[in-house]
Write a structure and sequence with these properties.
By secondary structure, the chain is an alpha/beta fold. The chain has helices at 3-23, 27-43, 57-82, 111-119, 171-183, 203-216, 228-236, 249-266, 274-287, 295-304, 337-341, 376-384, 403-413, 454-458, 485-498, and strands at residues 98-103, 124-127, 136-140, 143-147, 160-163, 168-169, 192-195, 199-200, 292-293, 309-312, 350-358, 361-363, 397-399, 401-402, 417-421, 431-440, 446-447, 460-468, 502-506, 514-516. The protein is globular, with a radius of gyration of 23 Å. The structure holds inosinic acid.
Length: 519
């Protein structure tokens, strides 16, 4: 679309949002219109490249409308909350408790979309665990940008972003993402902070990750090769280097030389140009100086001052080093505990714990996957669901929703609501299946908990329930009642089996293709 007609479209969208705010008291209608306009502004924004030079008064008008709508909407929502009415997203956003979006399965559940949508309601958006093994994609002006370390909240101009102490940061990757954002017209100045206690991932950690995988041969973990395991190993071995160390160059240099030398003693064929790396990191140190802060102080004082905080989980519970399918896991704790240990906040500050679960199930890398479908169903889910990793591009393994796994995940994390994604991927299937129980393949005896032993998990037999599918395109559905009865029945059944309300339902790949249910 031509830049000017795009602008006119965005202007009109904001006009609609304001009209709805003025003419009715429906927060939902106004917020939907505002959300649509903001997304169009943020993602289809023609200012990002070519149009910046001929910026016009129309763009100023759009910005003014955006502000006006935001203020009006906030007022309307505050009134509704104080009068007991429910808001578009979640009443907890009116409090300053911390809300969390977690991956409930083996990752790639589509957390990013919910975080993007919720982001506009929060003052601070934080990452607390993992590193550049996580990934989400954003589209700006029809160009895709892949992000791995920067929280999605960065796309909302008023949101501040925090990379907590529990994250392991590969600085070149982080700076590359900031550069990409800058090129896309997103101003990150003064809006992103990294914990001085977060640990650094070096290139040699990534090389070690690759070397360890090669050594394991056919027993490999199938890591993302982003150096996550080796960086956390350095942290736990107490010879790791933290982001804050970069601000004390002598100390950093000493620690760096020691770390390289101890790593080289284990991997003599590693090729590390120490002097060159030190040069690179000296430059990095000055680039990140103002972003490096004590995020524990920052987050807690923001909370004290009434800020609304959202934690963007990375990876997922079944990849948790403690709770996942060890050793086919990542090296951090992507479940709810990491919010406390990776951000430095107390449990009484937590409120909404939102588990993101695909309508089916996928996993990348090796390891057991009880409901995997190596057949036409798996093929359908992978193809229609475009199941390729954001970080590695690898094809994801696909299967049916696994209820014992989800019950285990809900037990650990205490989800207050679920975000069921990609329901539309089922469209066209005559039947859909849910894995409801595990039984021992040899004895036929039911297995009531998630086996720690992989040998046992590899050979569980899954009992499936078959539900009728649907053929209707559901991507235009905007309310639960719009969904075909069979799709509604699927959602109800999943809710019943897991025992947690499903508040959001993903019905299409677009950023606005998500249904909100007031549950
Ligand atoms: P690592 O985190 O790179 O060490 O990889 C360990 C395991 O976790 C591998 O099976 C990866 O494929 C998997 N993994 C790590 N992060 C993600 C993620 O964000 N989504 C899906 N799988 C992941």
């Amino acid at each position: 679309m031509h830049v000017n007609s795009k602008r006119t479209k965005i202007s009109n969208m904001f006009r609609t949002a304001i009209q709805r705010l003025t003419s009715s008291s429906s927060i939902a209608a106004a917020a939907t219109a505002f959300g649509a306009a903001t997304y169009a502004y943020t993602f289809d924004n023609p200012v990002s490249a070519s149009a910046k030079a001929d910026d016009s008064s129309e763009m100023d008008a759009i910005k003014a409308w955006m502000k006006e709508t935001d203020v009006k909407l906030a007022k309307l929502e505050a009134n509704a909350v104080s009068s007991g009415a429910s808001s578009i997203m979640d009443t907890s956003k009116a409090t300053n408790k911390i809300d969390i979006v977690l991956g409930a399965q083996w990752g790639d559940e589509g957390k990013g979309k919910l975080v993007d949508m919720l982001g506009m309601h929060y003052d601070v958006c934080a990452r607390v665990a993992g590193g550049s093994n996580a990934g989400h994609t954003i589209v700006v002006d029809n160009v895709k940008y892949k992000f791995h370390l920067v929280p999605s909240g960065i796309l909302h101009p008023a949101t501040k972003c925090v990379i907590g102490n529990g994250v392991v940061v590969h600085m070149p990757q982080f700076l590359k993402e900031l550069k990409g954002l800058k090129e896309a017209g997103v101003d990150t100045t003064g809006r992103i902070f990294i914990s001085d206690r977060a640990h650094l991932v070096f290139d040699f950690h990534q090389a070690v990750d690759g070397a360890q995988e090669s050594k394991l041969g056919r027993n490999k973990i199938g890591t993302t090769k982003k150096g996550i395991g080796p960086a956390y190993a350095s942290k736990i071995s107490r010879n790791g280097i933290r982001v804050g160390d970069l601000q004390d160059w002598e100390y950093f240099e000493e620690r760096f030389r020691a770390l390289v030398s101890s790593t080289m003693s284990q991997y003599p064929s590693l090729n590390v140009d120490v002097e060159e790396e030190l040069k690179v990191y000296k430059e990095i140190a000055s680039k990140i100086k103002t972003m490096t802060i004590d995020t524990i102080e920052y987050v807690n004082s923001q909370h004290k001052n009434g800020a609304r905080i959202l934690v963007e989980g990375a990876n997922a519970t079944m990849l948790d080093i403690d709770f996942g399918t060890y050793p086919y896991v990542t090296s951090s704790n992507p479940s709810v505990g990491s919010v406390l240990t990776g951000l430095g906040v107390s449990p009484n500050k937590l409120a909404g714990i939102y588990g993101t679960v695909k309508a089916y199930c996928t996993r990348v890398g090796e390891g057991p996957f009880p409901t995997e479908q190596l057949n036409d169903y798996g093929e359908h889910l992978g193809t229609v669901g475009a199941e390729f990793g954001t970080t590695t591009g690898r094809a994801r393994r696909c299967g049916w929703l696994d209820i014992p796994q989800m019950q285990y995940s809900a037990k650990i994390n205490g989800y207050t609501a679920l975000n069921l994604t990609k329901l539309d991927v089922f469209t066209g299937l005559k039947s859909v299946f849910i894995g409801t129980k595990y039984v021992d393949a040899d004895t036929g005896k039911p297995i009531h908990s998630m086996p720690a032993s992989l040998r046992q998990l590899y050979k569980v037999k899954v009992i499936y329930e078959e539900l009728p599918g649907w053929t209707e395109d559901i991507s235009k559905c905007t309310s639960f009642e719009d969904l075909p009865p069979n799709a509604q029945a699927y959602v109800h059944r999943v809710e019943e089996l897991i025992g947690v309300p499903i508040r959001w339902i993903g019905v299409g790949p677009g950023r606005r293709d998500i249904i909100y249910r007031d549950v």
